[in-house]
Amino acid sequence: MALEFEARDFHPRGMQIRDLHVIYQTNQGEIPAVNGVSMAIAPGKITGIIGESGSGKSTLAMALMNAVPKPGRIVKGSVVVDGAGDMLTIDKKIRQKVRGRDIGFVFQASQNSLNPLIRVGKQVLDLGRSHNIKDLRALLRRAKELLERMGMDAERILLSYQHELSGGMRQRVGIMLALVLEAQVVILDEPTTALDMISQASVLEIVRQIHQERHLTTILISHDMGVVADLADNVVVMYGGELAEAGSTEEILAHPLHPYTQGLIRAIPRISGPLDQAIALSGSPPDVAALKVPGCLFASRCPKRLPKCENSRPIYEAIGSDRYVACFRGTEHD
Amino acid sequence: MQILIRLGKRILAGIVMVLVVATFTFFLVRLMPGNPVAAKYNDLILHGMTPVQAMDQVRVMYGFIPHQPLWQQYLLYINQILHFNLGRSISYDGVPVLHIILAAAPWTIILVLTGLIASFVVGILAGVIAAIKRSSVTGSALSLSGSILHGIPQFVMGLFLAYVFTTLWVILPFGAPYNASLTPGFNWPFLSSLARHAILPVATYALSSYGGWMLTMKSSVITVLGDDFILASEVRGLKTWTQVKYIAHNAILPLFTVLALSIGFMFGGSLFIEDIFDYPGLGNLLLHAISSRDYPLMSGAFLLITVAVIISNIFADFLYSVVDPRIRR
């Protein structure tokens, strides 16, 4: 089916994010939502980015598209997409092409990501026209294929308006719109938040299948350690706008080094077994004032706090191949 | 079929509303102090007639003295309305009200409809630009223009334009809807004279309603800009023009109701403009009817406004179901 499209290289594309800073301008001053994030997104892999609400993961996702909504602002850094360039500095026209065509994006609020006044099919066509797709029939065929794979009546969906679809259907339409142009990098921001457990599982399974078939590079953002652990090859843990830990999923699950990661893993509820095995992480994410203290952002909630954690912030550094952590205890081998 | 049933229901409800409003206006008009016959009578006495002469004169002029009880007048009135008969004017010596209104309506429609459409189109476009570029100089300048023009009363605007373009810098004619030496009809000199005379009053109307459209559209666009699907269309890489279409389409919806109602209220005339520029339109007619206590003419004019507003409301409802799929059922 890909033959109907212009020939495109199918080498998986990676992404390099360097020293990314995003601030929100508020009445209380500038809040750093993403504070010096650097990471490499491995081509052809699923990278899970996990964090609590307010950890800056959605802002990071929007920053990768250079589409941080106001009052947010990217102050520095770079987001280099293989074969496309730095999203933050490329020409506006090229950026418009890269968005959607090279990088597909599934929104956190995907239920509201459709224009309420026009039919889904028309929105697929608008998307195709915006990206100068010549064969619009083929585009619609592909849209139908994707919708059917996600277990929906494609004909009906394309003729529907947003208000005629359920939340889960809209979410899947959002996923279809991210994939229909054959983007090679797909960013999913909480793609299953609005779904029940069963639809969630099936949608995630589809994401996994399509990822494998098309050799995509997938970034999956979630607050759900279970979802990330299940799907991702690599995991990045975010806390208070900074990175806390990163590594392969097995490594992170087996040997979490950051006390925050350890807390997240302990907090995963199991279907079987006593509920109190899942231990909630006490305390709340850092607020504006806490973001500006000199010490570790997690210090006030940390069970393994050291005296120096209050005064200096640990550096996020490599401690092995593709293994990073920002904790004074992380580098000690205990 | 379903649509026809719905339309039928709406029209039926509309007719009931018209009758209710007709009842109200009938009684309200008659509750106004003074009566036309007494007014004329006093007027004649002031002009030096004796009471007897004046009474005779009044009888000759109106042919009757209203002695029927109110409820009989009311039944007669409703019966007439149902037969599309609005009665005869008192101040125009027995000319049917419908004729008078139909003669005045075109002048108002020329003025107000042209001005309304012009201000709507320009105001909507300016509102979209003002909202999208609201942090730039262009945006601020547009918003300021809207606020200022919105704040200037219509009669001040009319007098100002008349002063500038017919006195200071004489490029446009003043007063009267067309050059009186021309024969009205479908001929070029008449039509061009009509157009030239209409420029100032239409501009007055358009300028003073532009601000309202612009500011409403601006705030509507700003609301839509905050919607998730606009951010989504940006991140999906839709062309700028497609994004603007999405925004404008969603933002214009609430303005349709206001537009339809404005078209309805148009039949109330635009008194200040008609007065300043000497147009024999509905506004002047209504003013005349009120000052001369011409009950039938007053009721007729009010009824026209009512019917127009109700019709345009029904029209707006249907327009909505065309442009907004969420309303269709």
Features:
heterodimer; A: 334 residues; alpha/beta; four-stranded antiparallel beta sheet; 31% helix; B: 329 residues; mainly alpha; MetI-like fold; 2 domains; globular
Description:
The complex is a heterodimer of chains A (334) and B (329). Chain A has helices spanning 57-64, 92-101, 120-130, 136-149, 154-158, 167-179, 197-214, 225-231, 249-254, 259-266, 288-291, and strands at residues 15-26, 29-41, 46-50, 72-81, 85-86, 103-106, 185-189, 217-222, 234-239, 242-248, 317-320, 323-325. With 334 residues, chain A is α/β, with parallel strands linked by helices. In chain A, the strands form 2 sheets. Chain A has an 8-stranded mixed β-sheet with strand order 6-7-8-3-9-10-12-11, with helices on both faces. A 4-stranded antiparallel β-sheet of chain A has the order 2-1-4-5. In chain A, α3 (120-130) packs across α4 (136-149). The termini of chain A are far apart. Chain B is mostly helical and 329 residues long. Chain B folds into 2 domains: 2-82; 97-323, MetI-like fold. Chain B contains 13 helices and no strands. Chain B has helices at 2-31, 36-46, 51-62, 70-82, 97-132, 137-151, 154-168, 188-225, 228-235, 240-265, 271-276, 282-291, 295-323. The two termini of chain B are 12 Å apart. Chain A binds chain B through residues 62, 65, 67, 69, 96-101, 105, 107, 109, 112-119, 126-127, 129-131, 161, 163, 174, 177-178, and chain B through 227-229, 231-240, 242, 246, 249-250, 323-326.
